[in-house]
What we know:
This protein is of the alpha+beta class. The protein folds into two domains: 6-281, Butyryl-CoA Dehydrogenase, subunit A, domain 2, CATH 2.40.110.10; 288-467, Butyryl-CoA Dehydrogenase, subunit A, domain 3 (Up-down Bundle), CATH 1.20.140.10. The protein is built from 16 helices and 14 strands. It has helices spanning 6-16, 36-49, 55-58, 79-96, 103-123, 127-141, 278-317, 323-348, 362-372, 375-387, 390-393, 406-413, 422-437, 441-450, 455-465, 468-479, and strands at residues 20-22, 25-27, 59-61, 68-70, 145-148, 171-175, 179-190, 197-200, 215-220, 226-230, 256-267, 271-274, 351-352, 358-359. The strands form four sheets. The protein has a six-stranded mixed sheet, with no helix packed on it. A four-stranded mixed sheet has the order 5-8-9-12. Strands 3-4 form a two-stranded antiparallel ribbon. A hairpin with a 6-residue loop joins strand 3 (59-61) and strand 4. Helix 5 (103-123) packs antiparallel against helix 6, helix 8 (323-348) runs antiparallel to helix 9 and helix 8 runs antiparallel to helix 10 (375-387). The structure holds flavin-adenine dinucleotide (FAD) and iron/sulfur cluster (SF4). Flavin-adenine dinucleotide binds at residues 104, 146-150, 153, 156-157, 188-190, 256, 442-443, 446-447, 450-454, 456.
Amino acid sequence: MSMKTKEEYFESIRKLNLPVYLMGEKVNNVDHPIIWPSINSVGMTYEIAQDALYEDLATATSHITGKKINRFCHIHQSIDDLVKKVKLLRLMGQKTASCFQRCAGLDGMNALNAVTYEMDAEMKTEYHQRFLNFMRIIQEEDLVCDTALTDPKGDRSLSPSKQKDPDMYLHIVKKDAKGIVVRGCKAHQTGATNSHWIAVFPTSAMKEEDKDYAVSFVTPSNTKGITYVFGRQSCDTRKMEKAQIDVGNLKFGGQEAYIIFDDVFVPWENVLIGGETKYAGRVVEIFANYHRTSYGGCKVGVADVLIGATSLLTKCNGTSKASHVKDKLTEMVHLNETCISCALSAQTEGSRHASGGYLVNGLIANVCKLNITRFPAEISRLSQDLAGAVIGTTPSEKDFEIPGGIGDLMKKYLKGAADFSWEERVRCIRLIENITMGTGAVAFFTEAIHGAGSPQAQRVMISRYSNLDMKEKLAKNIAGIKE
Ligand SMILES: Cc1cc2nc3c(=O)[nH]c(=O)nc-3n(C[C@H](O)[C@H](O)[C@H](O)COP(=O)(O)OP(=O)(O)OC[C@H]3O[C@@H](n4cnc5c(N)ncnc54)[C@H](O)[C@@H]3O)c2cc1C
Ligand code: SF4
Protein backbone atom coordinates (compact mmCIF):
# COMPACT_ATOMS: atom_id res chain seq x y z
CA MET A 1 0.00 0.00 0.00
CA SER A 2 1.30 3.49 -0.79
CA MET A 3 -1.66 5.73 -0.08
CA LYS A 4 -4.30 5.29 2.63
CA THR A 5 -7.89 6.45 2.41
CA LYS A 6 -9.18 8.75 5.13
CA GLU A 7 -11.14 5.89 6.73
CA GLU A 8 -8.08 3.61 6.72
CA TYR A 9 -6.15 6.37 8.45
CA PHE A 10 -8.81 6.79 11.19
CA GLU A 11 -8.83 3.02 11.75
CA SER A 12 -5.03 2.85 11.92
CA ILE A 13 -4.97 5.50 14.68
CA ARG A 14 -7.77 3.74 16.60
CA LYS A 15 -5.72 0.53 16.55
CA LEU A 16 -2.77 2.29 18.25
CA ASN A 17 -4.87 2.66 21.39
CA LEU A 18 -2.66 5.51 22.66
CA PRO A 19 -2.68 6.38 26.38
CA VAL A 20 -4.25 9.85 26.18
CA TYR A 21 -5.36 11.96 29.17
CA LEU A 22 -7.79 14.86 28.75
CA MET A 23 -9.27 16.91 31.58
CA GLY A 24 -8.11 14.48 34.24
CA GLU A 25 -9.30 11.29 32.56
CA LYS A 26 -7.86 8.61 30.33
CA VAL A 27 -9.98 8.94 27.21
CA ASN A 28 -10.80 7.17 24.01
CA ASN A 29 -8.49 8.87 21.54
CA VAL A 30 -10.01 9.57 18.08
CA ASP A 31 -13.72 9.43 18.97
CA HIS A 32 -13.71 11.83 21.94
CA PRO A 33 -15.71 14.93 20.86
CA ILE A 34 -12.83 17.29 21.70
CA ILE A 35 -10.30 15.17 19.79
CA TRP A 36 -12.41 14.16 16.79
CA PRO A 37 -12.27 17.47 14.83
CA SER A 38 -8.47 17.38 15.00
CA ILE A 39 -8.19 13.86 13.61
CA ASN A 40 -10.77 14.76 10.98
CA SER A 41 -8.54 17.66 9.99
CA VAL A 42 -5.60 15.27 9.44
CA GLY A 43 -8.07 13.06 7.57
CA MET A 44 -8.38 15.83 5.00
CA THR A 45 -4.69 15.35 4.11
CA TYR A 46 -5.65 11.81 3.07
CA GLU A 47 -8.91 12.78 1.36
CA ILE A 48 -7.29 15.47 -0.75
CA ALA A 49 -4.58 13.08 -1.99
CA GLN A 50 -7.31 10.76 -3.34
CA ASP A 51 -9.00 13.59 -5.24
CA ALA A 52 -8.03 13.70 -8.93
CA LEU A 53 -8.55 17.47 -8.92
CA TYR A 54 -5.64 17.96 -6.52
CA GLU A 55 -3.38 15.08 -7.62
CA ASP A 56 -0.58 17.37 -8.81
CA LEU A 57 -0.44 19.32 -5.54
CA ALA A 58 -1.29 16.62 -3.02
CA THR A 59 0.79 13.71 -4.32
CA ALA A 60 4.42 13.27 -5.40
CA THR A 61 6.76 10.58 -6.68
CA SER A 62 8.95 8.98 -4.01
CA HIS A 63 12.70 9.28 -4.67
CA ILE A 64 13.10 6.06 -2.65
CA THR A 65 10.56 3.72 -4.26
CA GLY A 66 9.49 5.61 -7.41
CA LYS A 67 5.86 5.18 -6.30
CA LYS A 68 3.10 7.77 -6.08
CA ILE A 69 2.88 8.94 -2.47
CA ASN A 70 1.09 11.54 -0.36
CA ARG A 71 3.06 14.82 -0.57
CA PHE A 72 3.06 14.97 3.24
CA CYS A 73 5.49 12.00 3.15
CA HIS A 74 7.76 13.39 0.44
CA ILE A 75 11.40 14.49 0.50
CA HIS A 76 11.47 17.53 -1.80
CA GLN A 77 13.39 16.79 -5.00
CA SER A 78 13.05 20.16 -6.75
CA ILE A 79 12.06 23.79 -6.36
CA ASP A 80 8.75 22.78 -7.89
CA ASP A 81 8.20 20.37 -4.97
CA LEU A 82 8.91 23.15 -2.46
CA VAL A 83 6.45 25.51 -4.16
CA LYS A 84 3.76 22.85 -4.38
CA LYS A 85 4.11 22.16 -0.67
CA VAL A 86 3.30 25.77 0.26
CA LYS A 87 0.39 25.88 -2.21
CA LEU A 88 -0.92 22.60 -0.76
CA LEU A 89 -0.76 24.05 2.75
CA ARG A 90 -2.77 27.11 1.70
CA LEU A 91 -5.35 24.86 0.07
CA MET A 92 -5.55 22.72 3.22
CA GLY A 93 -6.00 25.84 5.37
CA GLN A 94 -8.85 26.92 3.11
CA LYS A 95 -10.53 23.51 3.40
CA THR A 96 -10.19 23.09 7.18
CA ALA A 97 -9.79 26.65 8.60
CA SER A 98 -7.57 24.98 11.19
CA CYS A 99 -4.25 23.26 11.75
CA PHE A 100 -4.15 19.94 9.86
CA GLN A 101 -1.06 18.86 11.80
CA ARG A 102 0.92 16.96 9.21
CA CYS A 103 3.47 19.57 8.13
CA ALA A 104 5.69 19.66 11.22
CA GLY A 105 6.43 16.00 10.47
CA LEU A 106 7.02 16.72 6.79
CA ASP A 107 9.42 19.54 7.65
CA GLY A 108 11.16 17.42 10.28
CA MET A 109 11.68 14.53 7.86
CA ASN A 110 13.17 16.86 5.24
CA ALA A 111 15.51 18.35 7.85
CA LEU A 112 16.64 14.89 8.96
CA ASN A 113 17.22 13.90 5.34
CA ALA A 114 19.77 16.70 4.94
CA VAL A 115 21.45 16.46 8.34
CA THR A 116 21.86 12.68 8.53
CA TYR A 117 23.46 12.89 5.07
CA GLU A 118 25.91 15.56 6.30
CA MET A 119 26.75 13.48 9.39
CA ASP A 120 27.55 10.38 7.35
CA ALA A 121 29.65 12.41 4.89
CA GLU A 122 31.73 13.82 7.71
CA MET A 123 31.85 10.95 10.21
CA LYS A 124 31.32 7.83 8.06
CA THR A 125 28.32 6.88 10.23
CA GLU A 126 25.15 5.13 9.04
CA TYR A 127 22.55 7.67 10.14
CA HIS A 128 21.33 8.48 6.63
CA GLN A 129 20.69 4.84 5.75
CA ARG A 130 18.73 4.46 9.02
CA PHE A 131 16.74 7.55 8.07
CA LEU A 132 15.98 6.22 4.58
CA ASN A 133 14.82 2.89 6.08
CA PHE A 134 12.43 4.86 8.30
CA MET A 135 11.21 6.99 5.36
CA ARG A 136 10.44 3.86 3.38
CA ILE A 137 8.04 2.74 6.14
CA ILE A 138 6.41 6.19 6.33
CA GLN A 139 5.93 6.37 2.56
CA GLU A 140 4.90 2.76 1.97
CA GLU A 141 2.27 2.86 4.73
CA ASP A 142 1.32 6.55 4.30
CA LEU A 143 1.87 7.35 7.97
CA VAL A 144 1.71 10.56 10.03
CA CYS A 145 4.88 11.50 11.92
CA ASP A 146 4.89 14.53 14.20
CA THR A 147 8.08 16.44 14.97
CA ALA A 148 8.70 17.02 18.66
CA LEU A 149 11.36 19.58 19.51
CA THR A 150 10.09 21.78 22.31
CA ASP A 151 11.15 20.80 25.83
CA PRO A 152 9.50 22.28 28.94
CA LYS A 153 12.88 24.08 29.47
CA GLY A 154 12.46 24.97 33.18
CA ASP A 155 14.62 28.02 33.92
CA ARG A 156 15.31 29.48 30.48
CA SER A 157 18.45 31.25 31.65
CA LEU A 158 20.11 27.86 32.26
CA SER A 159 21.42 25.34 29.72
CA PRO A 160 19.96 21.79 29.75
CA SER A 161 22.70 20.23 31.87
CA LYS A 162 22.60 23.12 34.38
CA GLN A 163 18.87 22.75 35.18
CA LYS A 164 17.98 21.80 38.75
CA ASP A 165 15.79 19.02 37.35
CA PRO A 166 17.76 17.19 34.61
CA ASP A 167 14.53 16.08 32.90
CA MET A 168 13.54 19.63 31.87
CA TYR A 169 15.10 18.76 28.50
CA LEU A 170 14.65 15.28 27.06
CA HIS A 171 17.90 13.35 27.41
CA ILE A 172 19.64 9.99 27.18
CA VAL A 173 19.70 8.25 30.56
CA LYS A 174 21.24 4.96 29.41
CA LYS A 175 23.13 3.57 26.41
CA ASP A 176 24.02 -0.04 25.61
CA ALA A 177 24.74 -2.24 22.61
CA LYS A 178 21.05 -2.40 21.71
CA GLY A 179 20.08 1.27 21.94
CA ILE A 180 19.36 4.22 24.20
CA VAL A 181 16.86 4.95 26.97
CA VAL A 182 15.45 8.51 27.05
CA ARG A 183 13.56 10.50 29.67
CA GLY A 184 11.83 13.87 29.48
CA CYS A 185 8.84 15.57 27.94
CA LYS A 186 8.03 17.36 24.70
CA ALA A 187 5.52 20.18 25.13
CA HIS A 188 2.90 21.73 22.78
CA GLN A 189 3.12 18.88 20.25
CA THR A 190 0.88 19.44 17.27
CA GLY A 191 -1.02 16.36 16.15
CA ALA A 192 0.59 14.22 18.86
CA THR A 193 -2.30 11.81 19.40
CA ASN A 194 -3.07 11.69 15.66
CA SER A 195 0.37 10.42 14.67
CA HIS A 196 1.75 6.94 14.01
CA TRP A 197 5.37 7.96 14.67
CA ILE A 198 7.18 10.72 16.53
CA ALA A 199 10.42 12.29 15.29
CA VAL A 200 12.17 13.70 18.37
CA PHE A 201 14.63 16.57 17.87
CA PRO A 202 16.74 18.57 20.29
CA THR A 203 15.05 21.86 21.11
CA SER A 204 18.05 24.03 20.16
CA ALA A 205 21.81 24.05 19.58
CA MET A 206 23.76 22.17 22.27
CA LYS A 207 27.22 22.60 23.81
CA GLU A 208 29.55 19.66 24.51
CA GLU A 209 28.46 19.62 28.20
CA ASP A 210 24.89 19.00 26.94
CA LYS A 211 25.89 15.93 24.91
CA ASP A 212 23.17 13.70 26.38
CA TYR A 213 20.56 16.24 25.28
CA ALA A 214 21.80 16.31 21.67
CA VAL A 215 19.52 13.47 20.66
CA SER A 216 17.23 12.82 17.75
CA PHE A 217 15.33 9.62 17.08
CA VAL A 218 12.13 8.25 15.60
CA THR A 219 9.77 6.01 17.53
CA PRO A 220 6.26 4.60 17.05
CA SER A 221 3.74 6.73 18.94
CA ASN A 222 2.55 3.70 20.95
CA THR A 223 6.00 2.81 22.29
CA LYS A 224 6.00 1.64 25.93
CA GLY A 225 6.66 4.51 28.35
CA ILE A 226 5.05 7.25 26.23
CA THR A 227 1.96 9.06 27.59
CA TYR A 228 -0.03 11.97 26.15
CA VAL A 229 -1.67 14.79 28.08
CA PHE A 230 -3.98 16.81 25.82
CA GLY A 231 -3.73 20.62 25.86
CA ARG A 232 -6.82 22.76 26.53
CA GLN A 233 -7.95 25.22 23.91
CA SER A 234 -10.10 28.25 24.51
CA CYS A 235 -13.82 27.26 24.20
CA ASP A 236 -12.93 23.55 23.77
CA THR A 237 -15.87 22.21 25.81
CA ARG A 238 -18.32 23.69 23.30
CA LYS A 239 -17.44 20.60 21.27
CA MET A 240 -19.02 18.50 24.04
CA GLU A 241 -22.29 20.44 23.98
CA LYS A 242 -23.37 18.81 20.71
CA ALA A 243 -23.57 22.38 19.43
CA GLN A 244 -24.03 22.95 15.69
CA ILE A 245 -23.44 26.70 15.58
CA ASP A 246 -21.55 27.72 18.74
CA VAL A 247 -18.40 25.73 17.89
CA GLY A 248 -17.83 27.96 14.85
CA ASN A 249 -15.94 25.24 12.99
CA LEU A 250 -18.07 22.13 13.25
CA LYS A 251 -15.84 19.62 11.51
CA PHE A 252 -12.20 20.61 11.91
CA GLY A 253 -9.71 21.66 14.57
CA GLY A 254 -6.13 21.33 15.74
CA GLN A 255 -4.59 19.68 18.78
CA GLU A 256 -1.49 19.96 20.92
CA ALA A 257 -0.37 17.64 23.69
CA TYR A 258 2.44 17.12 26.15
CA ILE A 259 4.27 13.90 25.35
CA ILE A 260 5.89 12.32 28.40
CA PHE A 261 8.81 9.96 27.79
CA ASP A 262 9.24 7.88 30.92
CA ASP A 263 12.41 5.86 30.30
CA VAL A 264 11.60 4.96 26.71
CA PHE A 265 13.86 2.49 24.92
CA VAL A 266 14.94 3.40 21.37
CA PRO A 267 16.93 0.83 19.35
CA TRP A 268 20.03 2.18 17.56
CA GLU A 269 18.39 1.65 14.18
CA ASN A 270 15.96 4.49 15.11
CA VAL A 271 18.58 6.87 16.56
CA LEU A 272 19.46 9.67 14.13
CA ILE A 273 21.58 11.96 16.32
CA GLY A 274 23.17 10.18 19.26
CA GLY A 275 25.10 12.86 21.16
CA GLU A 276 26.82 14.69 18.25
CA THR A 277 26.27 18.23 19.59
CA LYS A 278 27.48 19.88 16.38
CA TYR A 279 24.41 18.63 14.53
CA ALA A 280 21.80 19.60 17.12
CA GLY A 281 21.78 23.26 16.08
CA ARG A 282 22.05 22.35 12.40
CA VAL A 283 18.96 20.11 12.38
CA VAL A 284 16.94 22.66 14.36
CA GLU A 285 17.92 25.44 11.95
CA ILE A 286 16.96 23.50 8.82
CA PHE A 287 13.68 22.34 10.39
CA ALA A 288 12.83 25.87 11.56
CA ASN A 289 13.48 27.33 8.11
CA TYR A 290 11.11 24.86 6.49
CA HIS A 291 8.46 25.25 9.18
CA ARG A 292 8.63 29.05 9.26
CA THR A 293 7.60 29.03 5.61
CA SER A 294 4.92 26.38 6.18
CA TYR A 295 3.07 28.99 8.23
CA GLY A 296 3.12 31.22 5.16
CA GLY A 297 0.93 28.55 3.54
CA CYS A 298 -1.41 27.20 6.24
CA LYS A 299 -2.17 30.45 8.08
CA VAL A 300 -2.81 32.19 4.76
CA GLY A 301 -5.39 29.53 3.85
CA VAL A 302 -7.09 29.98 7.22
CA ALA A 303 -7.02 33.76 6.73
CA ASP A 304 -8.72 33.29 3.34
CA VAL A 305 -11.64 31.74 5.27
CA LEU A 306 -11.54 34.50 7.92
CA ILE A 307 -11.54 37.25 5.30
CA GLY A 308 -14.45 35.51 3.56
CA ALA A 309 -16.41 35.26 6.83
CA THR A 310 -15.71 38.92 7.60
CA SER A 311 -16.81 40.06 4.15
CA LEU A 312 -20.01 38.01 4.49
CA LEU A 313 -20.71 39.45 7.94
CA THR A 314 -20.37 43.02 6.65
CA LYS A 315 -23.07 42.09 4.13
CA CYS A 316 -25.24 40.66 6.93
CA ASN A 317 -24.60 43.88 8.90
CA GLY A 318 -25.40 46.12 5.95
CA THR A 319 -21.99 47.83 6.08
CA SER A 320 -20.30 46.23 3.08
CA LYS A 321 -20.62 49.22 0.77
CA ALA A 322 -18.92 51.73 3.10
CA SER A 323 -15.50 52.80 1.81
CA HIS A 324 -13.65 52.19 5.09
CA VAL A 325 -15.09 48.66 5.20
CA LYS A 326 -13.88 47.92 1.67
CA ASP A 327 -10.54 49.46 2.57
CA LYS A 328 -10.12 47.27 5.66
CA LEU A 329 -11.00 44.13 3.70
CA THR A 330 -8.43 45.17 1.08
CA GLU A 331 -5.85 45.66 3.86
CA MET A 332 -6.58 42.15 5.15
CA VAL A 333 -6.00 40.71 1.67
CA HIS A 334 -2.83 42.79 1.30
CA LEU A 335 -1.39 41.45 4.58
CA ASN A 336 -2.35 37.90 3.70
CA GLU A 337 -0.87 37.96 0.21
CA THR A 338 2.33 39.47 1.66
CA CYS A 339 2.63 36.35 3.84
CA ILE A 340 2.16 33.90 0.97
CA SER A 341 4.50 35.91 -1.26
CA CYS A 342 7.25 35.57 1.31
CA ALA A 343 6.58 31.86 1.76
CA LEU A 344 6.68 31.25 -1.99
CA SER A 345 9.82 33.27 -2.57
CA ALA A 346 11.61 31.33 0.20
CA GLN A 347 10.87 28.24 -1.93
CA THR A 348 11.78 29.65 -5.35
CA GLU A 349 15.04 31.01 -3.85
CA GLY A 350 15.72 27.59 -2.30
CA SER A 351 18.66 25.38 -3.24
CA ARG A 352 19.70 21.79 -3.83
CA HIS A 353 21.35 20.02 -0.90
CA ALA A 354 24.11 17.40 -1.43
CA SER A 355 21.62 14.71 -0.28
CA GLY A 356 19.45 15.48 -3.34
CA GLY A 357 16.79 17.15 -1.17
CA TYR A 358 15.94 20.84 -1.49
CA LEU A 359 16.31 23.52 1.20
CA VAL A 360 14.39 26.79 1.46
CA ASN A 361 16.10 30.19 1.55
CA GLY A 362 16.90 30.83 5.22
CA LEU A 363 16.76 34.62 5.21
CA ILE A 364 13.40 34.83 3.45
CA ALA A 365 12.03 31.98 5.60
CA ASN A 366 12.68 34.01 8.73
CA VAL A 367 11.27 37.20 7.23
CA CYS A 368 8.18 35.16 6.32
CA LYS A 369 7.70 33.91 9.90
CA LEU A 370 8.35 37.33 11.44
CA ASN A 371 5.52 38.67 9.27
CA ILE A 372 3.38 35.76 10.44
CA THR A 373 3.98 36.75 14.08
CA ARG A 374 2.20 40.04 13.27
CA PHE A 375 -0.05 39.86 10.22
CA PRO A 376 -2.59 37.18 11.27
CA ALA A 377 -3.03 39.18 14.52
CA GLU A 378 -3.65 42.35 12.52
CA ILE A 379 -6.02 40.49 10.17
CA SER A 380 -7.89 39.24 13.27
CA ARG A 381 -8.06 42.77 14.69
CA LEU A 382 -9.49 44.14 11.45
CA SER A 383 -11.98 41.27 11.29
CA GLN A 384 -13.23 42.00 14.82
CA ASP A 385 -13.34 45.72 14.00
CA LEU A 386 -15.66 45.07 11.06
CA ALA A 387 -17.70 42.39 12.83
CA GLY A 388 -18.76 44.39 15.88
CA ALA A 389 -19.28 43.49 19.53
CA VAL A 390 -21.42 40.48 18.61
CA ILE A 391 -18.14 38.53 18.33
CA GLY A 392 -17.81 38.68 22.10
CA THR A 393 -21.40 38.80 23.33
CA THR A 394 -23.71 36.63 21.22
CA PRO A 395 -25.84 34.26 23.35
CA SER A 396 -25.72 30.49 22.96
CA GLU A 397 -27.55 28.82 20.10
CA LYS A 398 -29.82 27.24 22.74
CA ASP A 399 -31.10 30.74 23.61
CA PHE A 400 -32.57 31.08 20.15
CA GLU A 401 -34.83 28.16 21.01
CA ILE A 402 -36.11 29.46 24.40
CA PRO A 403 -39.86 28.87 24.41
CA GLY A 404 -42.46 31.50 25.25
CA GLY A 405 -41.32 34.06 22.70
CA ILE A 406 -37.84 34.88 24.05
CA GLY A 407 -36.13 32.66 21.44
CA ASP A 408 -38.08 34.39 18.68
CA LEU A 409 -37.11 37.77 20.08
CA MET A 410 -33.44 36.74 20.05
CA LYS A 411 -33.82 35.73 16.39
CA LYS A 412 -35.41 39.10 15.68
CA TYR A 413 -32.69 41.09 17.46
CA LEU A 414 -29.78 39.15 15.96
CA LYS A 415 -31.04 39.62 12.43
CA GLY A 416 -29.21 42.12 10.23
CA ALA A 417 -29.86 42.98 6.55
CA ALA A 418 -33.02 41.58 4.96
CA ASP A 419 -31.21 39.16 2.62
CA PHE A 420 -29.71 37.16 5.49
CA SER A 421 -31.27 35.06 8.22
CA TRP A 422 -30.30 35.44 11.90
CA GLU A 423 -28.73 31.99 11.66
CA GLU A 424 -26.49 32.90 8.72
CA ARG A 425 -25.33 35.97 10.63
CA VAL A 426 -24.66 34.04 13.84
CA ARG A 427 -22.80 31.30 11.94
CA CYS A 428 -20.45 33.96 10.50
CA ILE A 429 -20.02 35.46 13.97
CA ARG A 430 -19.10 32.08 15.47
CA LEU A 431 -16.61 31.26 12.72
CA ILE A 432 -14.83 34.59 13.22
CA GLU A 433 -14.87 34.02 16.98
CA ASN A 434 -13.42 30.52 16.50
CA ILE A 435 -10.50 31.70 14.37
CA THR A 436 -9.68 34.93 16.21
CA MET A 437 -10.18 33.90 19.85
CA GLY A 438 -11.69 30.42 20.09
CA THR A 439 -10.17 26.99 19.52
CA GLY A 440 -8.88 28.05 16.08
CA ALA A 441 -6.94 30.95 17.57
CA VAL A 442 -4.48 28.56 19.21
CA ALA A 443 -3.07 27.96 15.73
CA PHE A 444 -4.02 31.25 14.05
CA PHE A 445 -2.88 33.57 16.84
CA THR A 446 -0.69 31.93 19.55
CA GLU A 447 1.08 29.53 17.23
CA ALA A 448 1.61 32.31 14.68
CA ILE A 449 3.65 34.02 17.39
CA HIS A 450 5.50 31.11 19.03
CA GLY A 451 5.31 28.12 16.69
CA ALA A 452 8.65 27.27 15.03
CA GLY A 453 10.27 29.69 17.48
CA SER A 454 9.23 32.96 19.17
CA PRO A 455 9.76 36.25 17.24
CA GLN A 456 13.21 36.89 18.74
CA ALA A 457 14.46 33.64 17.19
CA GLN A 458 13.59 34.99 13.73
CA ARG A 459 15.30 38.33 14.44
CA VAL A 460 18.48 36.50 15.46
CA MET A 461 18.43 34.46 12.25
CA ILE A 462 17.65 37.46 10.03
CA SER A 463 20.62 39.25 11.58
CA ARG A 464 22.82 36.16 11.04
CA TYR A 465 21.80 35.74 7.39
CA SER A 466 21.75 39.47 6.59
CA ASN A 467 25.28 39.73 5.10
CA LEU A 468 25.86 43.36 6.06
CA ASP A 469 29.48 43.17 4.78
CA MET A 470 28.23 42.67 1.26
CA LYS A 471 25.77 45.55 1.65
CA GLU A 472 28.56 47.83 2.97
CA LYS A 473 30.68 46.95 -0.07
CA LEU A 474 27.80 47.92 -2.34
CA ALA A 475 27.48 51.26 -0.55
CA LYS A 476 31.24 51.91 -0.70
CA ASN A 477 31.25 51.19 -4.41
CA ILE A 478 28.41 53.64 -5.13
CA ALA A 479 29.74 56.30 -2.73
CA GLY A 480 33.27 56.05 -4.13
CA ILE A 481 34.82 54.96 -0.81
CA LYS A 482 38.04 52.96 -1.32
CA GLU A 483 38.45 49.54 0.39
C1 LIG B 1 -0.13 25.95 18.92
C2 LIG B 1 1.29 25.57 19.04
C3 LIG B 1 1.75 24.42 18.42
C4 LIG B 1 3.08 24.01 18.55
N1 LIG B 1 3.48 22.85 17.95
C5 LIG B 1 4.74 22.40 18.15
C6 LIG B 1 5.19 21.16 17.59
O1 LIG B 1 4.46 20.47 16.87
N2 LIG B 1 6.42 20.74 17.86
C7 LIG B 1 7.28 21.47 18.64
O2 LIG B 1 8.40 21.03 18.85
N3 LIG B 1 6.90 22.64 19.19
C8 LIG B 1 5.65 23.13 18.97
N4 LIG B 1 5.27 24.33 19.51
C9 LIG B 1 6.19 25.00 20.42
C10 LIG B 1 6.96 26.15 19.83
O3 LIG B 1 7.99 25.71 18.99
C11 LIG B 1 7.48 26.96 21.02
O4 LIG B 1 6.34 27.57 21.60
C12 LIG B 1 8.52 27.98 20.68
O5 LIG B 1 9.72 27.37 20.27
C13 LIG B 1 8.81 28.90 21.86
O6 LIG B 1 9.14 28.18 23.01
P1 LIG B 1 8.33 28.38 24.37
O7 LIG B 1 6.90 28.29 24.09
O8 LIG B 1 8.93 27.47 25.37
O9 LIG B 1 8.61 29.91 24.72
P2 LIG B 1 9.51 30.52 25.84
O10 LIG B 1 10.88 29.93 25.72
O11 LIG B 1 8.84 30.41 27.14
O12 LIG B 1 9.56 32.03 25.34
C14 LIG B 1 8.68 33.02 25.83
C15 LIG B 1 9.36 34.36 25.68
O13 LIG B 1 10.58 34.37 26.43
C16 LIG B 1 11.68 34.72 25.60
N5 LIG B 1 12.83 33.90 26.04
C17 LIG B 1 12.95 32.55 26.01
N6 LIG B 1 14.15 32.17 26.51
C18 LIG B 1 14.78 33.29 26.85
C19 LIG B 1 16.07 33.55 27.44
N7 LIG B 1 16.90 32.56 27.72
N8 LIG B 1 16.40 34.84 27.65
C20 LIG B 1 15.55 35.85 27.34
N9 LIG B 1 14.34 35.66 26.79
C21 LIG B 1 13.96 34.40 26.56
C22 LIG B 1 11.24 34.39 24.17
O14 LIG B 1 11.92 35.18 23.21
C23 LIG B 1 9.75 34.72 24.24
O15 LIG B 1 9.54 36.06 24.02
C24 LIG B 1 3.97 24.79 19.33
C25 LIG B 1 3.53 25.97 19.92
C26 LIG B 1 2.22 26.38 19.79
C27 LIG B 1 1.76 27.64 20.45
S1 SF4 C 1 0.43 25.08 12.14
FE1 SF4 C 1 0.29 25.00 9.93
S2 SF4 C 1 2.28 24.28 9.28
FE2 SF4 C 1 2.12 23.75 11.45
S3 SF4 C 1 1.29 21.68 11.42
FE3 SF4 C 1 -0.45 23.09 11.64
S4 SF4 C 1 -1.17 23.37 9.56
FE4 SF4 C 1 0.88 22.52 9.41
